Amino acid sequence: MENQTVQKPNMPLIGEKAPDFTAITTLGPLTFSEFNKGSWVIMFSHPADFTPVCTTELSAFAVDKDFYATHNTKLIGLSIDSIHSHLAWVNNVREKTGVYMDFPIIADLDMKVANLYGMLHPDASTTAAVRAVFFMDPKGIIRLILYYPLNIGRNMEEIKRILVALQTADEKSVALPVNWHPGDKAIVPPPKPSRK
């Protein structure tokens, strides 16, 4: 048996334009650059539908949808499952818990989007996306990236804190210190010298 070389992921970087794509989602076809236009976007991948950790995570995003809406932020999920699996899962969660995941979830069977965003980490799995989180600003620029392993759920309070921190830093032109939370002191950078 020949040794197979697994390609390491090509990962977009903070400060880069978010790679554009068109995909089928639970809410119909979607072109990412159009979806992102004029609002913040948090895009997150999960390993598989109908799994306990993924269900808790995506349900938590859905429960907090008003928070994200008031912060001009759209949510979009992704996994390497079919659209039929996604729709069945969304309906199952709604029936069993009353929580409706009414944000688009990308069906990425061909792994095109997962590869584009470096969500496939071959040493973790060659068939499931890790738990990636991408924060994009209204100009479509990647502002922050988080990666979690397959077996550890995300901290939703941290995701909300990050969003508010990014928006606060932009709005006030400040830097934010360790463990910053809304209402805490910020760091005002020194003024730039004027050029004569």
The CATH topology of the domain at 22-155 is: Glutaredoxin
Secondary structure category: alpha/beta
Major β-sheet profile: 5 strands, mixed
Radius of gyration: 18 Å
Oligomeric category? single chain
* pLDDT < 50 runs, ≥5 residues: 1-6
Number of strands: 7
Shape: globular
How far is the N terminus from the C terminus? 70 Å
Looking at the overall shape, the CATH architecture of the domain at 22-155 is 3-Layer(aba) Sandwich
Strand order of the largest sheet: 5-4-3-6-7
Estimate the mean pLDDT confidence.
90
Helix content: 25-40%
Instruction: Please name the fourth-level CATH homologous superfamily of the domain at 22-155.
Output: Glutaredoxin
DSSP helical segment count = 6
Describe this structure in words.
By secondary structure, the protein is α/β, with parallel strands linked by helices. It has a domain at 22-155: Glutaredoxin. The chain is built from six helices and seven strands. A five-stranded mixed β-sheet has the order 5-4-3-6-7. A two-stranded antiparallel ribbon has the order 1-2. Helix 4 links the parallel strand 4 and strand 5. The longest helix is centred in the last third of the chain and has 17 residues, at 156-172. Residues 1-6 have low confidence and may be disordered.
